[in-house]
User: Fold this.
Amino acid sequence: MLSAFQNIFKVEELRRRVLFTLGILIVYRIGGHIPTPGVDAQALGAFFATAGSTLFGLYDMFVGGAFYKATIFALGIMPYISASIIIQLLGSVIPYFQKLQKEGEEGRRKITQYTRYGTVLIGALQAFGTAVFLESNNAGQGAPVVPMPGWGFKLVTIITFTCGTDLHHVAG
Assistant:
């Protein structure tokens, strides 16, 4: 077993893939702990203590607790899954997408490209909605989750969550 593990690092292609995978895992673990700028983590924790059995608690479970902490991976892979479903549904309704599905490898590449564009668009829309949600919540005692709301916070949240979703998609 140990010799098989050592042989992995002797083959260039395997070594490169293993190191890439380890690097992505490290980035993913670190990103799961980096909070979004402008969010009061204590106030957010107090809010989720009362909202654990709601829809937000369920969503937080799907993204591995990242929503509860408002980390850069708070949206998880859900925008990618949504974009994939939308593109597949478009393939059954719109002739252009039907043609792409039948084109083989070139069509799959185009569909993948459209899915990535859709992921960014859906991620940005969900990030905007999340920013508005975070700005509108208090921790129960009146402490705001976002002490300095406004378009600056919304823009930073959109960029942070959308990039996190795109990186999450690459890692997944």
